[in-house]
Amino acid sequence: MGRWSNASFTMLLKMLKEELLPDGANLPNSYYEAKKIIKELGLSYDKIDACTNNCLLY
How far is the C-alpha of 31 from the C-alpha of 19, rounded, in Å? Predict the structure, then answer.
């Protein structure tokens, strides 16, 4: 997720759930739960490597 660590993404989800979203909002508790939901929906992603000069390799 944009070079975020799993722990930092989990912290973001926690902050969104506690501070920004209304009570009872349905949001995954961790990176792994979010990834599992995406996989169950049949969605996927392709990792694209970028060079130091922001050149993309396809």
Answer: 18
Asked whether the beta carbons of 13 and 29 are under 8 A apart, the reply is yes
Average pLDDT rounded to a whole number, residues 7-19 = 92
The Cα–Cα gap between 39 and 31 comes to 12
CB atoms within 10 A of CB 39: 10
pLDDT at position 49? 67
Here the tokens at position 43 are: 């969605």
Tell me how far apart the alpha carbons of residues 49 and 30 are, in angstroms, rounded to a whole number.
25
* Residue ranges of E strands in the chain: none
